[in-house]
Amino acid sequence: MLSKLKKPLKSRLKRFFPFVRWAKKYSKLDLVYDVIAGLTVGMTVIPQSLAYATIAGLPIQYGLYSSFMGLFMYSIFGTSKDVTYGPTAVMSLLVYQYTHLTRYDKIDNISQITSINSTTNISVTDFKEMRNMLHMHYAIILTFVSGIMQAVMGFVHLGFLISFISHPVLNGFTNAAAIIIAIGQIKNILGIKVAKSHFLLETIHTFRDIGKTNPWDCALGICSLILLLIMKKLNRSQWLERKLFSANGNNSSNDSNRYANKLWQILKILIHKSVWLLLTGRNAAVIALSAIVAYWLNQTDRKVNLTPSVQGGLPPWTFPPRFNFRYDGTSLNASSNNISSNTIFVSAKEVFQDISFGFLTISLIGILESLAIAKSFARKHKYTIDPTQEFVALGISNVMSSFVSSYPITASFSRLNYARIVFTNRVSTLFECKTVWPSITAINSQTGVRTQAGGIFTGLLVLLALRYLTSYFRFIPKASLAAMIISAVLNLIEYKIFVKIWKVKKMDFVVAITTLIACFFVGVEFGIILGIVLAMAFLVYPISKPHLYIELDENDANGLKYYIIKPNQSLFYPSGEYFTETLISECLLEPLLEQEEDEPSETNGFISEIKANGTIGSSIPTKNKKLSKILADVIIDCSHIQDFDFTIIQELKELNKEFKAMNKQLVLCNINEILGANIMDNLKDIKTFKSLNDAKLYFSEIIAPSSMPLLVVRKECDNANLC
How far apart (Å, rounded) are the C-alpha atoms in residues 84 and 67? Predict the structure, then answer.
């Protein structure tokens, strides 16, 4: 009995700690691959993280604070060897939206502070410092709470929520975010100081002040951007491979020639690896080069805008983050409970009010981006992931990262491009000097990081940078960081996707464009919400208006006529009113058209037309003839109905009463087993049949043909009892 209990517990622990699976089989060769992969990714993570922190409106060291703890946690809890956690461009933009639009950011005059915080007697300089610290505090709280939400969603299997964010919404949001980020960096490329505000206002102010462009910032930024784009293009092409390995070399049997060929092969491989390493770490290379140029320019009168001085060393450990915020005029006061006259205090309630929907938005977007990347690479490289565990891994990574002053993180597409290390899967190839060099694309897809441990070495490299390199970050020019951001987000702009969406479905195109425009005009967070609501509306509308195939069967030998109504889908509460009104208007209401001339009719007053698709059409008017609908019994064919909800059951009960009042019958046929249980329990007054033929047989043999003519004139239908 005890052994039976141990097995489920053991399997659950393995599922919760996936690192146990690969740690058992970890080898020295895996270590080599993971070290190379981790260090290579680190060359991209460090400069990118610095740049992304500027998008979030935080000091650049916060980008590095956000780039190591998540990697450590994912190596323990993650199920994909290719995923790398850290700050991303889109997530950084969302963080800015939710942390820089507080009540204190809307203050234009220092005297307005008293209307919010009556205990304040603070200088303008201290107030600006306080506001900057408040932004950092909000970012950390956002990380902590969104991480908890992500972990809880994983534990209780709420992953289905991300299914409500459709691809058109994501496409519109991603393109809008990329455009907003890219245009927002133009001011740094030009060296213009523009106050941060709404995207459109900031763009207008940037181009309004374009005459104030710093030529040295502009030149350095444009050169950095061009260099990055060229290096990116070269890294994706096979130009060096074709140059170095297009020929197989001399196959002479001469020992000296064979030895020379081997040496040449080794040299070509080393050249290839060196150039590839330079192109892969192009961000670090360009930042280092631009920092040297900026330092040289600033020694003269040609000044270049540099990043502000950053706090050096490792981030402080705070467990758990405080929800309230207190600033005493010079620094954060975490211990004192006294609020003096120069203290600004923001309660936890005010913090949550300011962030509001940010917790949910950050949680869902982070999960969606991370899960999409993990699934994509798992499918490509033929291994499986655990989606539920990915939720938990991201949540734990964010929670733990908040203890080291991180802002929200998720998986990054751009880093995954570098995680596939150009390293042949036979390490001995370098020494064997084989003349057949495999395609660079094949190497990228077949080799590289072996396990989740690759993230550990990336995280260690980030910690080393925090410990020893932060004092040099002040030499990084803002224009070069802006160029790196623009280079990174250009991949996110996919204008062709809108053409594809238009060709597939027009409603999806409306959703994508609406999301895109809303992100520009009302903000990214509201753009996402509006896109989701609109997509849901387009999804629910067909449910609320099901197609009802209506046929008037008048081929019965007894002359009995009845309607056959066949819905094309299951019926739920949004469609209840439409379904009821359609049945009443088509099957119970009397005439459609008034009589043109009050003269006797030769055919009892009307001719009814049934459309080709089965729906009852308008009556065909003929002069001196009165038109009216046929009053007949109704068979509802439930062959396409898999389920009813309570609202539909109540509507059917009311319909049955209406039909009985008109001396007509309402019956159901083709009931499935699940639906049959609901019918038997809740609709006992309505007859049900297994098939349509059984229902027809019931009307033919059991129900006697009505003595009243079925083709009735309106005047004869004025009496409800006759109809």
Answer: 9
Three-class SS string for 95-152? HHHHHCCCCCCCCCCHHHHHHCCCCCCCCHHHHHHHHHHHHHHHHHHHHHHHHHHHHH
pLDDT of residue 218: 93
Domain final position from 459, 478, 499 = 499
> 74 Cβ partners below 8 Å, 6+ apart?
83, 85, 393, 394, 397, 452, 455
Asked whether residue 129 is assigned to any structural domain, the reply reads yes
Q: Which helix (H) or strand (E) holds 278?
A: helix 255-280
606 in the same domain as 488: no
Which pLDDT does position 622 carry in this prediction?
Answer: 36
Long-range contact pairs involving 210-217 (C-beta distance under 8 Å, separation at least 24): 214/190, 214/303, 214/304, 214/305, 216/191, 216/297, 216/302, 216/303, 216/304, 217/188, 217/189, 217/190, 217/191, 217/304, 217/305, 217/477, 217/478, 217/479
Distance CA 158, CA 164 (A): 12
Task: Please give the tally of structural domains in the chain.
Answer: 2
Query: What count of other Cβ atoms lies within 10 Å of the Cβ of residue 432?
Result: 11
Task: Work out the average pLDDT over 251-265.
Answer: 70
Name 247's Cβ contacts closer than 8 Å, sequence gap at least 6. Answer: none
Distance of CA 542 to the CA centre of its chain: 24
Cα-based distances in Å from 439 to 241, 244, 428: 8, 12, 17
Residue numbers of the domain that contains 608: 548-717
Write out the two tokens for 172.
Answer: 């519109």
122/65 same-domain check? yes
Q: Say how many Å lie between the first and final Cα of the chain, rounded.
A: 73
At 269, the amino acid letter reads I
Angle, in degrees to the nearest 10, between helices 524-544 and 167-184: 160
Spatial separation of the C-alpha atoms in residues 88 and 46, rounded to whole Å: 12
pLDDT of residue 337: 46
Answer yes or no: do 438 and 578 share one domain: no
Does the pLDDT of residue 60 top 80, yes or no? yes
CATH number at residue 605: 3.30.750.24
Type of residue numbered 35 = V
With CA atoms as reference, report the closest residue to 180 among 164, 153, 199, 207.
Answer: 199
489 and 609 assigned to the same domain: no
The b/e string for 503-538 (b: 16+ C-beta within 10 A; e otherwise) is eeeebbbbbbbbbbebbbeebbbebbbbbbebbeeb
Q: Are residues 437 and 303 in the same domain?
A: yes
Scanning the structure block, which residue is given the tokens 């020494």? 431
The pLDDT tens digits of the residues spanning 533-590 come to 999 999 888 888 888 888 887 755 566 778 889 998 888 888 888 888 888 887 766 4
Q: What is the mean pLDDT of the chain?
A: 77
Instruction: Judge if 481 and 589 occupy the same domain.
Output: no
- Closest Cα to residue 633, out of 578, 695, 572, 574? 695
Residue 263, domain member (yes or no): yes
pLDDT of 224 reads 93
- Residue 233 above 80 pLDDT? yes
Whole-prediction pTM: 0.74
pLDDT tens per residue, range 346-373: 888 888 888 888 899 999 889 988 888 8
Query: Which of 466, 499, 532 is a domain's end point?
Result: 499
pLDDT digits (tens, 9 = 90+) for 108-118: 666 666 656 65
User: Within a domain: residue 449?
Assistant: yes
Question: Is the omega angle on the peptide bond into residue 387 within 30 degrees of 0, that is, cis?
Answer: no
> Are 362 and 447 contained in the same domain?
yes
Residue 341, classed as helix, strand or coil, is coil
Q: What is the DSSP letter of 81?
A: S
What band does 329 get if pLDDT is binned at 50, 70 and 90? low
Q: Tell me, yes or no, whether 647 and 557 share the same domain.
A: yes
CA-nearest of 216, 212, 222 to 185 is 222
How many Cα atoms occupy the beta-carbon half-sphere of 277 within 13 Å?
12
Is 86 a domain residue? Answer: yes
